[in-house]
Amino acid sequence: MKKTLAWAVTVVTAATCTLGAALPAVAADTTTPPAATSAAVTSAAPGSTFDTSRLSPDLKALADQALAQLPADWQQHRDAATAAFGIHDTQWAALRDSVINPGDYQCESNALRDYQRTLLQGANFEPLFFLYFLGVFDMPTYDALYFGSESKSNTFGVNGEYTNELTSESKDLKRFWDIHSDDIQLVPMHGRELFSSPERLAPVVSLMYGIPEENRKVALGLASLIIDVINLDPVLQGGDNPFFTLNAFAFSEKGAPHPAGIGDRIVMGDGILEAMRAIGLGATAPRAILAHEFGHHVQYEDDLIGDRDGTPEGSRRVELMADAYGTYFLTHSRGEALNAKRLLDSEKSFYQVGDCAFSSPGHHGTPNQRFATASWAAGVANDAANQGHILPSLTFDALFETKLPDLVKPDATN
Predict the structure, then answer these.
(1) What is the structure's pLDDT at 256?
(2) Which of 256, 262, 319, 361 is the residue whose CA sits 20 to 30 A from 304?
């Protein structure tokens, strides 16, 4: 069984594999010559070499040093690590045929998409493409997943503003759901903290590129060069640009423990928390994201992922189910007890993160489907005759499976 990494929030520029597709759209607002942009896109393709001849002198010097120090098989190690940890599995695996008709569904621009398009405005594309080529935008994920751990000293949010809220909710979630959850760690994902020094970054560099421990000097040198490239562009804010950490995910090793003992965890990135604040959803969305991610752990523990995982329909079922588990907890009198109407009003915007990637094995469901699922789950909590009773997780799943065909009907027929 492969490792499982469930991505909660799919934002176009959140992950390394997206960068090649996202940057040209922004390039229209820059002064980068078309020829240079085209060359950069080609150079940045995974598995290729990187032509540094068109780079500015400062960046070319750093890039040449970095490429000279990388092991010959660094790309294979990077790709193997990505596959082993499932980092891109749900969103960026090979596209598969889908029976879903895109013409029947609604997907429109929204505040979150508008916000994420602003993150790289004014950025220099040369260092961006080189960082993409090296896989640097995945490094905060590796750091949180492989080296992070739950600790009383952890903070959530760029300024720690979500620390109390999320740590308290994590405890509530463990009390609420009837699964084994004592071992689920809540771990932050920070950007600038990781890129603060070569010593801090070097273990991630070694992990990604397959650099042996005895070659720590090489890892330190590469880490230093990566930090220098990041610092060439003030738009990247030394790693604090939300671009680096614009995601949240759940990870489980159930059935396939990793030799390093990573264990079960939920990772919350500073970037996604900042994004929710920026679009006016900071009061509810962070809790909704965490509740959704914990819903994935309910699925793992109850073996609810099923053999349909890996197809668009299977992924949609898994993600909508996690939405349902999350909203049920948030609105239940023994959960967060949030006002259902106010929560759902907020989630009209929050669930706009739904996508129209109908043929992608990481399809999360359309915005309308995600909101319909949340509305249904809130109704299950609020309409219960016994408000103090928490449905067993498997009983709740049975209700969800019965309702699912209605939740995924084309928008035109809802």
Answers:
(1) 61
(2) 262
Sequence-ordered list of residues with C-beta below 8 angstroms from that of 57, at least 6 positions apart, any chain: none
Integer Cα distance of 370 and 112 in angstroms: 15
**What is the rounded CA–CA span in Å between residue 11 and residue 259?**
31
Higher per-residue pLDDT: 227 or 247: 227
Torsion of CA 191, 193, 197, 203, to 10 degrees: -80
Mean pLDDT in residue range 31-45: 33
User: Above 70 in pLDDT, residue 15?
Assistant: no
CB 13 within 8 A of CB 120: yes
Task: Please report, in angstroms and rounded to a whole number, the separation of the first and last CA atoms in the chain.
Answer: 37
Token duo for residue 56: 């500015």
- pLDDT-derived band at 31, boundaries 50, 70, 90: very low
- Listed in order, strand segments (DSSP E) in 165-263 are 185-189, 248-252
Euclidean distance between CA atoms 288 and 286, whole angstroms? 5
3-state SS track over 180-202: CCCCCEEEEECCCCHHHCHHHHH
Phi–psi pair at 101, nearest 5 degrees: -95, 110
Residue range(s) defining the domain that contains residue 261:
4-413
Flag whether pLDDT at 145 surpasses 60. Answer: yes
Is residue 179 within 8 Å of residue 297, measured between CB atoms?
Answer: yes
pTM of structure: 0.83
Give 6's strand partners.
Answer: 250
Count of structural domains within the chain: 1
**Rounded-to-integer distance, Cα 325 and Cα 374, Å:** 9
Q: Name the region of 199 (left: φ>0; alpha: ψ -120 to 50; beta: rest).
A: alpha
